[in-house]
User: Fold this.
Amino acid sequence: MGEIALSHSRLSVYQNCPRKFKLQYLDKAFPDDSNNPNFVRGNRVHGQLENYVMWLNADQSFEKPAMCTEAQNVIALINNVYESYTSVLPEQQLCLDKNWDKTGWFAKNAYLRAILDVIAFKPGKGLILDYKTGRVRDYDQYGGQLHLNAAISILARKFPEAIFTLDLHDGIWYYLPEENGRELAIEMRDTLNRTNWSRLWNKNILLPLPFGAKIGPSFGEVKSV
Assistant:
């Protein structure tokens, strides 16, 4: 059997249920769900917001795109990003090979695919927005998506040698240098656990934020450190 390209959603399916991953992506035994109401709704919102950014980039030279209520709720955020960054691009497809070099979306060596809803740049900074139209997961004792985003920001500043790859179900995955990977993982873990999150966000954090650390040569071979 040949290899298939991975994505955040595909990896999430595999972590939840390897059998579902096999049936859905290898055997292709699942029915076509393109008419699923949630899928249609998500596509509509994403498409309208993509058109809006394109409208801004075209100096509003064509008719303003129609917007549903959900899309309209994001306009203020997009306008703020557009005013704060030099370049703002919608719906950018990124595909990497196993060497983490850019390749074609349908290339035979495609290994990891991602669609960036909005990516913005200005000197020294970059920003990625990801729209969520599906079910929102409740926070549990391990925190949630916003906690991960904050952790990613802190680690990126303090540990530039650690290459961030993706966040997956309350976990943040990094490539670490082989010569000091274990020591670096422990230092990153301790940095996150020492952070005063309530002070950082200027609000009370009701849930504890325990960060552990595991390290290994692959996703399936990690062990606690």
